[in-house]
Amino acid sequence: RTGGRPARGTGKRAARERTTGGSRAGRPWGRATTGLAVAAGALLGLASLGKPNILLFVPAAAVWLFVKLGRGADPGDASGSGRLRTRAVAPLALFAAAGLVILPATIHNYRTEGDLIPVSSNAGINLYIGNHPGAPGTFTVPPDMRFDLRVASERAAERATGRDLSAGEVSDYWTGLALRFAQQRPGMWLRQMGRKFALFWNHYEIPNHYDLNFVADFAPILRNPLGAFAVVAPLGLAGLVFAVRRKRRVGLLVLFGITFMCSVLPFFVTGRYRLPVVLALLPGAGYAVHAAVRYARTREWRRLLAIGTLTAALAVLVNVDIIEFSSAQMHNTLGAIYGRQGDLPAAARQFGAAIEENPDDLSARRNLGRALLELGRYGEAAREYREALRRHPAYHEARLELGMAQAARDSIAAAVRTWSNLLAMRPPEQIASAARHLIDQSAVEPNEEER
Fold first, then answer.
1. DSSP SS3 for 5
2. Regions of the chain with pLDDT less than 70
3. Spatial contact of 127 and 175, defined as CB atoms under 8 Å apart
4. CA 399 to CA 388: how far, in whole Å?
């Protein structure tokens, strides 16, 4: 602006930009829209390679784009034919771009397994974990699958069907069990879905591998409440509600949040699995804070009270304690870290703390046995291995290392019997090979009687 008037040439340039679709380079409006749709689809495809459930948002976004383009007119085409063409092409371009990005993974899966698996084949077992009698809505693996979920779920499916299965067939088997449960016990299934909805919007960061609540004791930055879900969720939800009421352009954010939540709830809830929904909540939280400050400055007390009341009510609901996790897994993880650092006594203490909190933590028992074995406390190590095997007789690694503890105590004959029993159970080849090697090695050493 110059002296309160438009600069020379501004009116002509504006008219020219309207004629060319608002592009300074004269690029047609429809082409620009389609290009943005392709970029968005490609980015969604990349995101789905890390989190396959994001794929659910691709058709939702394509439909949203189709509806959105139908509401406006093409400023560069008075006849409307360009608008109609763009309305048809842009959503298809978004969908196709996402498909092309994941196509290499799909081809790889087909060549490896012979099944049409777009990204990942673990959907079936994950669906079963979240949908069976007694499912708590979190990542709680059946006891006989705790050591290797992929391999154990495949073997269980093959035992049940009596034949070898491809990865896709394994996924179909577990999907069938989950769907059958929902069909046969709809009341329990609906209660589980309600619980997962509550967990999804709860402040607690449900651990999958690492418990942030435990790690916060070692990383003070994690204790900062401003970035916590307990603060972001109520502010974000309240901000999005007010933005929708004020007719702000947040429809796509709301659609993403709802779609992503719907992609998680059929499975199970963890803090890191729900993390992408924060992308929709953060702009809403910023809008809520901005609106509250503006209402306070302009003394719009009714609106300030409304947004404050809604935020406070949501904060109460989000911050209700409905779940609590044991720290056993994190003690086990911390023990493994101490072990890698060579501090075996500290590692043994952490493994012991894990067992104290959860006596059924077989991984911690085995780790404690290994630490005690390396510390030369062979009798205590053997006791931990035996307890692990009492709770899970098919724990092949524990049986192998029990024999090592027995051999270290000069009980060679007992060790050979343990390894022979292990071979009779037909363990995986890697474990079987180690057992045969130990038996052969013990045969050339003097036995107890010769000692």
1. strand
2. 1-30, 71-83, 143-148, 443-451
3. yes
4. 9
Strand partners, 5: 2
Token code pair at residue 363: 């991984």
Tell me what pLDDT residue 1 has.
39
129 burial level (CB within 10 Å; 0-12, 13-18, 19+) = buried
Q: Hey, what are 72's tokens?
A: 């406006």
* Runs of H (alpha helix) within 319-411: 328-340, 344-357, 362-374, 378-391, 396-408
Residue whose entry in the numeric block shows the structure tokens 């069990």: 177
Q: Which two tokens stand for residue 16?
A: 């020219």
Please give the mean pLDDT across all residues of the chain: 83
Rounded CA separation 278/63 (Å): 23
Say if CB 195 and CB 137 are below 8 A apart: yes
Per-residue tokens: 239: 């901000």
Radius of gyration of the chain (CA): 30
